[in-house]
Amino acid sequence: MKATGSKGLAVAVIENGEVVYVHAFGVRNAKGDPLKSDTVMYGASLTKTVMAFVTLQLVDDGRIALDTPIADDLDKPLPTYGPDPVFPRKYGPYGDLAGDERWRRITPRMALTHSTGFANFAFLEPDHKLRIHFDPGTHFAYSGEGFVLLQFAIEHGKRSKGLGVDVGNLAQKNTFDPLGMTRTSLKWRDDFAANYADGWDEKGSLEEHSRRSKVGAAGSMDTTITDFAKFTAALVRGWGLSPASHAEMIRPQVHITTKTMFPTLQPDLPADKQRKDLYAGLGVIVFDGPQGPGFHKGGHDDTTADTMVCVNSGRRGVVILSNDVRTEAAFPDLVDFILGDSGMPHDW
Questions:
Q1: What does the radius of gyration of the chain's CA atoms come to, in whole angstroms?
Q2: Cα–Cα distance between 270 and 20 in angstroms, integer?
Q3: What are the boundaries of each domain within the chain?
Q4: Does a cis peptide bond (omega within 30 degrees of 0) precede residue 263?
Q5: Are 200 and 325 in contact (CB under 8 A)?
Q6: In whole angstroms, what is the distance from residue 293 CA to residue 7 CA?
């Protein structure tokens, strides 16, 4: 923390599928209130791993299939759906896809492996329009928009298939509550207000914690280091999913051929420069290293730096949540100190 200027950092360690260490350091706000292990922090894109977990629970229940096109789960063509009446920006501008029939091919697997063909978000496109940049399923390009589409399919899908259900409620009922994650939610709760973390950006400026009023599968989760450690431990030991679904989640599926995660939609590296073991799993990135296969997921915004890194052998893992984006520079040393050389693709 001294080296990076970080104001707050929380760490958890998992060994053999159990949480063996949890600690928080630093402060959570400008007043200097201490960051604690039960302080609510922003989970950012760690939400995507939870979304994959929730989806696979639906797969196990026979309510959705990874390789059935999302179009088949909807009552009408995707481009005919208008904005959400309460939260107009909750879902993508699906009308923009009219005229490009490739939307009919997109499956839950493609959404969870970042291979839909979408940019990260439609609002980042120069004209703010949603478009498909490559044939779905053929390439990796990090996309929150794909996760938003999958959320849409689950929440607006055919009730005859067991869909039309709220993703936030599913996560709460089937994952957070059973694991005792009492201070985790996919949207803001008023009971978080007594102990939550504001954040610091790379210039050391403070930004208040955003109180997200809608569930966003790409990144709306609030959690604590204690709670997310419980989820990570459950994930590495296979809790909550069938053996087949757990194996599918952390299996190499779509080869990653770019130098870095961002910018998305960047050109492929030459074949001899590509990392051969780097793939998208379902809601995670999988890799191989000196200790065997592992997986990870990060979370990031202007004032947030989060990471989860797990090694399958020994069911080991580390979770780091920080309310100061400057901490991110220390992640490689911290992860390697805790896990040893895992092969984690820090430079990607």
A1: 19
A2: 42
A3: 8-339
A4: yes
A5: yes
A6: 33
- 152-156 long-range contacts (CB < 8 A, ≥24 apart) are 152/81, 152/91, 152/92, 152/94, 153/64, 153/70, 153/73, 153/74, 153/108, 154/55, 154/58, 154/64, 156/74, 156/75, 156/81
β-bridge pairing 206-207 and 199-200: antiparallel
Alpha-carbon distances, residue 125 vs 110, 122, 133, 239 (angstroms): 20, 5, 11, 39
Q: How does pLDDT run across 161-217, given as a tens digit for each residue? A: 999 999 999 999 999 999 999 999 999 999 999 999 999 999 999 999 999 999 999
Q: How far is CA 338 from CA 16, 228, 231, in A?
A: 14, 17, 19
Q: pLDDT digit string (tens) for 51-61?
A: 999 999 999 99
Q: CB burial class (10 A; 0-12, 13-18, 19+) of residue 161?
A: middle
Q: Which residues of 167-179 are buried (b: 16+ CB within 10 A; e: fewer)?
A: bbebbbebbbeeb
Q: How long, in residues, is the chain?
A: 348
Assigned fold of 8-339: Beta-lactamase (3.40.710)
Dump pLDDT digits (tens) for 240-295. 999 999 999 999 999 999 999 999 999 999 999 999 999 999 999 999 999 999 99
Per-residue burial over 216-250, b if 16 or more Cβ lie within 10 Å, else e, is bbbbbbbbbbbbbbbbbbbbbebbbbeeebbebbb
The token pair at 126 is 């120069």
Residue of 46, 55, 112, 87 whose CA lies nearest to 212: 87
What residue ranges in the chain does DSSP mark as E strands? 8-15, 18-26, 41-44, 199-200, 206-207, 221-223, 254-255, 279-280, 285-289, 292-301, 304-311, 316-322
3-state secondary structure of 10: strand
In three-state secondary structure terms, 337 is helix
